[in-house]
Amino acid sequence: MSDIIAFSPVLLAAITGLIVMVLDLLSGKNTHKGFLGWVTAVGLLASGTAACLLWVGGREISLPFMVGMVQFDTYGAFFVTLIAIAGAASSLLIVDHNPEQGIHDGATYPLVAFATFGAMLFVVATDMILLFLGLEIMSLALYVLAASKQTSPFSMEAGVKYFLLGALASGFFLFGAAFLYGATGSLDFVTVGRTIQDAAAHGSGLSKVALVMIIAALGFKIAAVPFHFWTPDVYEGSPTPISAFMAGVVKAAGFAVLARMMLTIWGTAEFSSGWQSPGGILLILAVISMVVGNIMGIVQDNVKRILAYSSISHAGYILLGVYAIGLGEPGAVGISLNSGVPFYLLTYVLATVGAFGVLALMGGQGHEDMSLDSIAGLGKRSPILALILTISVLSLAGIPPLLGFMGKFVLFKQVLLADPDRNWVWVVVAVLNSLVALYYYLRIVLYVYFREPEGEAAPIIKSNAGLFAVSTMAVLVLLLGVFPGKAIDASNQASHHAVLSITEAQAAPAVQQESAPTPEPKQPLRLRQVDGLKVDPSHIPIIRRAMELKLRDSGPKPK
Amino acid sequence: MTNIPLSHWLALATALFAIGTIGVITRRNMLIALMSLEIMLNGVGLAFLAFARFRGDVSVHAAVFIVMAVAAAEVAIGLALAIAMYRNNGSIDLDQASRLKG
Amino acid sequence: MGSEFLPYVAIIITIVVAVGIALAILVLNAVLGPKRPSEAKMGPFECGSDVVDTPRKRINVRFYAVAIFFVVFDIEALFLIPIAVAYRDLLQPQHLGVFALFALLLFIGVLAIGLWYVWGKGALDWAFDALTSSAARSDANE
Known about the structure:
Chain B has helices at about 5-25, 30-55, 60-90. Chain B has three helices and no strands.
């Protein structure tokens, strides 16, 4: 029973979807379906609240029907909460969308709830197949949502593009999972990780193929550069609330899983040795994502496309944080998840949902595209929306009092501290990129306040629900920017437990392979000091035990 | 039943996967792209089964069931999108879906 | 023939037997069956559509809707059959116990809500227009 309670945040999202489906049917054909948006939002927020209430240490869930497939720890709770907030905001943004903008169908809300449920399952799963199931529940709902503006060829095209490329990515993920199973004989993260860190399995062709395939698939979901081509098209063509959902929820979930997989499965000592290592691949993706995202962002004239390229460059910054996971002195095993990654995702999701949310409250009446010209003069027409858009965009840019600045600061600092000798180059690249990005963010602000519309400006939708959602985002960005302490603490705990629950499981005696005790390598065991990571003293023996086990595994094998 | 070596199974699975991938990328007809998608996922299923047999582990067959179910759901949504596309474009030629410049 | 092809002998035998059974049925039919031909009987069976027709002819888009729902609900059996086969074992307390029945009912229940939704939205009616024309539907809404 306690397992059901521990799983309840994820279940609540699914139940919300079912309830909204039934309510949609019972309310009849001719009612306005806006109230379903509120029901969805309340249900998803309840799920987020449940996740916060369960904020206690690592907790393994072994429901009778899925033993060891789900791990609900503070890492999961952190991301479930974040996803719930973003999902609730998106469903509120849909409430007052008029028929002309396409979304007026009751079916939209259950789809949003199910997509959120899929993202939550994706985040808490620690088994390849359950992970895939979560990925697909999220993606399938989103394919339909992207195409849900039935009168618009753009929306249909966005849906088709997202569907074909997304299905390709799922295929790659599954193929990678199959090969990983072939290399290790298990689909469970911990067992796979334990086997693959054995030198033989790590070097085998099967696991290399699996690594490339899985990074490609997740790279598609997080829109990292060579896998980013769909992003601007889909974000532009989809109904704007759905763009907000994709930019916020999908990216957060994708990164949460990428970080966890890198940590559990490929977090070996040779994580970042050379370009072909997992770390090397991530580093290359990180740098080209930043550069390409920012350069392409400069030349865009459509606000949604600018935000899409901005999301690509943000993927680059976060990838740099994920790359820093496995860094450390040779011998010491990189088992620390950079707490900058969850925190940065928090800052990114709040700001990007806010920015897309303001765009979602404009348009309609035949006004389809969101060119810079159509937001010109927003400062005079709707000061409050203009203010919210400005706050969100400046937070994305990383202007000091706002949350985005803290995110960049914490992330870059931790990347630098992970390996000061080599990483300063990449941090400098990232900071220079943030400066380049200022150009297009400030361009949006310039148009909002200092330009008069030349053509026809986009009309503004009157929506209490939408206004409530975006202003909540903006208030959070402001408040957490000024008082970031709690949020940083939360992300520290989240990343700490992502480490702890895994090391606990790995420190447990291996069932299948029982190797003879090898002579301990004479290296000093050090807990790597990561800035801001407070290690609970009672956990030190467990971590130490895990490090010893890992050292023994990665040491030379007596044959 | 004598043993067919694992490499034969894997070669077939990889070939199916590659044919499917190339089909999704190059074919311009939405329905043929959907068929290619199905071939891709069948390749994955075969790879799972080959490894399961090689390792003598039956439990992974459940994974194949799930892959098949998800493939069916994917095709259902693909068909729905094809209908939406036909309604908007009067054709299911993917080349015509290029109003948005990527 | 090298020995590595030996395992494929079984597959070849299967193919031969399958083709053989099909041929045998056709031959036996031709030899033994009574023949009273009529025009309708002589035409090949084509699921109700005309036999001689232009290949470019459009298939009514409503068939696609039926195909979509069939594909989705057809898969239900994929999960039910393994459970049905292993059901006796699953009911043993050392496996799932009564929970097996509960899980099965939960699965069918969620699918039933889905079916109810599809039904309630009118998607099972042959005249359902949402997929065929959006114009017709927006007229209906006003």
